[in-house]
Amino acid sequence: MGLSCVKPQRKSSCINNGEIKVRRFGILRESNISTNNVEVVTRPWSDLPADLLSLIADRLGIIELLSFRGVCKAWHVASSVASAKTEAASNSEPWFLCYGENSQCHLYNTSQRGYKMSIPELDGATCIASNQGWLLIFKQGSMFFYCPFSRAKIDIPRFPHLVLSEHASAFSSPPTSCECIVAVMHRDLEYGLELYLLYRGADTWTRRKLSSIQYKLSAFGFATYNNETFYFFDKIDAAIAFSVKDKRCLKYNIVKKDNSIPRKILPCVRVKSLFVKFNMKKKLGLQDDISVSTCGTILQCDDIDKIIFNENFEAAGESGNRCVKGVWIQPRFFQVSSNQSWSL
Fold first, then answer.
1. Cα–Cα distance between 97 and 341 in angstroms, integer?
2. Contact (Cβ atoms closer than 8 angstroms) between residue 129 and residue 138
3. For 311, which of 192, 218, 237, 287 is 20 to 30 Å away at the CA?
């Protein structure tokens, strides 16, 4: 992996009894040029000071960082706190991770370059929320947070249902935060609309039953968290807001802004049909007989957050039996200690 971002160290020289010694970083090699009394001493890149290596790693994008960490042990250790945050800056576009048929996944960045990744953890699983580089994964009742770039995984207590038919999910902050709360709005065929909450450190979910008449929503579109409130949007123009502080639910109808009428302002901008806008189906080489379901994400912007809605595309005709999944994700790298757990 090239290091074009690193400026070569200026050659330092000293004269000692008529001999000139020159030190520079490069390939490990030693040579003497006796005719000019010059001794060239070259050293490996791994001899760079750890502090300088850490500064370099902190300025790399996610793909470069992964390559950087694979060079040698010294570089791996020096990049232990790097998170590729440069590619998750404000107003940057998310990346797209396609999965669902086996452990082989396809990753596309904003320049539409494709990468293949093997992620066994996603085989047979479904991503139900994506935020700040962390994915919330559901697999037959089990749930865990996962960072696909670092393979960091944090298990959380099992969900009360083995199947999530229709849902919208969000978490308030990264799972390593003591303030993290997971919220899942689930429409059950038998029990109707249910809100499940899991607080950091808790070993069981709390359940709230909601009236399907009072809190009627069409198909769920997305969920997000802002200012101590979870918002669950449908795909049309309605939302349910749950206040963590007051433990109350309110339903809102979303209308166009009218300054002449005082109304509550949404804390975010809704972005729909991004999968279609970026023509992802063609880029992935998916035919019309393949169903696609995607999980959105949240983009922290300078002025107001953007939320990318979940999307579903049914296969054309009756012969379609393949289904792939995808998730929009911010390319971040997180390392957690081996004893990191959901418990406090």
1. 25
2. no
3. 192
User: Do both 69 and 172 map to the same domain?
Assistant: no
Which of 60, 78, 96 delimits the end of a domain?
A: 78
Spatial CB neighbours of 247, under 8 Å, sequence gap ≥ 6:
none
CB 161, CB 188: distance < 8 Å? yes
Q: Are residues 222 and 172 in the same domain?
A: yes
103-108's contacts with Cβ under 8 Å and 24+ in sequence apart are 105/148, 106/284, 108/280, 108/283, 108/284
Residues 62 and 192 in one domain: no
Cα distance between residue 285 and residue 267, in whole Å: 36
Give 236-255 pLDDT, tens digit per residue.
999 999 999 999 999 998 88
> What is the Cα 342 distance to its own chain's centre?
19
CA distance 95 to 117: 14
Residue 142 pairs in a beta bridge with 139
- Is residue 119 located within the same domain as residue 186? yes
The CATH number for 122's domain is: 2.120.10
* Structural domain boundaries enclosing 61: 19-78
pLDDT of residue 295: 96
With tokens 């609309």, the residue in question is 193
Nearest Cα to Cα of residue 105 among 90, 115, 91: 115
Distances (CA, A) of 181 to 64, 228, 271, 272, 287: 32, 10, 24, 25, 38
What does the alpha-carbon distance between residue 227 and residue 90 come to, in Å, rounded to a whole number? 19
- C-alpha 76, offset from chain centre: 21
Q: What is the pLDDT of residues 168-177, one digit of tens each?
A: 999 999 999 9
Task: Find, among 153, 208, 171, the residue nearest to 186 by Cα.
Answer: 208
pLDDT at 32 over 70: no
Q: What is the pTM of this model?
A: 0.81
> Do 69 and 168 have their domain in common?
no
Reported as a single tens digit per residue, the pLDDT across 40-50 is 666 676 677 88
Contacts of 287 (CB under 8 A, 6+ apart): none
Q: What does DSSP say about strands 290-295 and 298-299: parallel, antiparallel, or unpaired?
A: unpaired
Is 253 in the same domain as 112? yes
